[in-house]
Specification:
mainly alpha; elongated; three-stranded antiparallel sheet; 54% helix; 3 strands
């Protein structure tokens, strides 16, 4: 699956719901990306960043809304970035994070059964 993850965490191009078994290595890579989603704080981070007026946020923008310390927020942002779900841009001493929409859409596509994908396209 292009665009999802880094070189270390590329997800498979074959859906586990696509009607054919996926290889073990592909399942492990996809599970790694899904683990990044599987945390309430990370889901909230994705939501906060997406809903920010500029579509991006720094760690200092995210600590108060989450009620977590700066090191904890940075840890979660690193996991999301390594999974390919966020992009990080350093500007001076600050780093800004924004969603990678294509990565999130690709994961949604992998988890949507083929019949439902075809139905959605024809509407």
């Amino acid at each position: 699956m292009e665009g999802v993850g880094t070189a270390k965490t590329d997800s498979p191009a074959i859906s586990p719901l696509g009607g054919e078994p996926i290889k073990r290595a592909d399942a492990e890579r996809l599970a790694g990306v899904l683990k990044a989603f599987a945390d309430p704080a990370r889901l909230r981070l994705l939501s906060l960043i997406q809903s920010a007026p500029s579509g991006e946020a720094s760690v200092s923008d995210l600590t108060a809304p989450l009620g977590l310390s700066q090191p904890t927020v940075s840890h979660h942002l690193r996991i999301l970035t390594e999974a390919g779900l966020l992009e990080r841009e350093k500007r001076g001493v600050w780093a800004y994070y924004r969603l990678v929409p294509s990565a999130i859409a690709a994961i949604a596509g992998l988890l949507t059964p083929p019949r439902k994908r075809a139905t959605k396209r024809t509407r």
